[in-house]
């Protein structure tokens, strides 16, 4: 497998990841109905996630690859199952926040690696497009980091 083929494969992984996270985030937005700010931010990130999947699709195609339907199907199924994992629990919001924060950190690491990989194969334009995604992921991670203490406190209050 050439370096270019590896990058296309990794981009397919990123595309599948975005599709799976869209499913999870939709459930988390519903869970956050009593938290207007959190729900609005999750819904905004759902839109960002859809855009990221399209950007990654464009990157794959610009490198001469095709989006892997099998990876996407598996990822969507996994996302649907993961979204149901915390139901029904009193501390759902906290568990969602932890899962989302971990997912954002994983995405940040993936996009940083993809940016380097694209630069290594001389695909600066693709690296630039992925950098935009990276910034969106970092922004969401920062939001979650700022709201995590409140989610912990709320879960403790609910348990008393």
Topology:
Layout: H1 3-31, H2 36-62, H3 69-84, H4 92-120, H5 124-158
Structural description of this entry:
This protein is mainly α and 160 residues long. It has one domain: Ferritin (Up-down Bundle). The protein has five helices and no strands. The N and C termini lie far apart (56 Å). The mean pLDDT is 90. It comes from Promicromonospora soli. This is Ferritin-like metal-binding protein YciE.
Q: Helix share of residues? A: over 70%
Give the number of domains: 1
Unreliable residue runs: none
Mean pLDDT: 90
Distance, first to last CA: 56 Å
Class by SSE composition: mainly alpha
Q: What would you give as the CATH superfamily?
A: Ferritin, core subunit, four-helix bundle
CATH architecture: Up-down Bundle
Report the top-level CATH class: Mainly Alpha
Secondary-structure element order, N to C: HHHHH
What overall geometry do the principal axes of the alpha carbons give?
elongated
DSSP E strands, number: 0
Supply Rg.
Answer: 17 Å
Largest sheet: none
CATH topology type: Ferritin
Number of helices: 5
InterPro entries: DUF892_YciF-like, Ferritin-like, Ferritin-like_SF
Pfam families: DUF892 (PF05974)
Protein name: Ferritin-like metal-binding protein YciE
Give a quick precis of the structure:
By secondary structure, the protein is mostly helical. Helices cover 85% and strands 0% of the residues.
Which terms would index this structure?
160 residues, Ferritin, 0% strand, mainly alpha, Ferritin-like_SF, elongated, 5 helices, Ferritin-like, single chain
């Amino acid at each position: 497998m050439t370096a270019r083929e590896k990058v296309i494969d990794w981009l397919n992984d990123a595309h599948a990841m975005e599709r799976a996270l869209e499913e999870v985030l939709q459930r988390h937005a519903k869970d956050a109905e009593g938290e207007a700010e959190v729900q609005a931010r999750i819904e905004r990130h759902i839109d960002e996630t859809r855009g990221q999947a399209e950007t990654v699709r464009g990157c794959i195609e610009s490198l001469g690859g095709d989006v892997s339907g099998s990876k996407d199907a598996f990822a969507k199924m996994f996302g649907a199952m993961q979204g149901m994992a915390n139901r029904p629990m009193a501390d759902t919001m906290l568990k969602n926040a932890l899962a989302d924060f971990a997912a954002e950190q994983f995405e940040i690491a993936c996009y940083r690696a993809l940016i380097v990989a694209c630069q290594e194969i001389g695909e600066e334009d693709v690296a630039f497009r992925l950098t935009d995604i990276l910034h969106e992921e970092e922004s969401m991670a920062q939001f979650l980091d700022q709201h995590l203490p409140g989610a912990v406190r709320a879960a403790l209050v609910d348990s008393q």
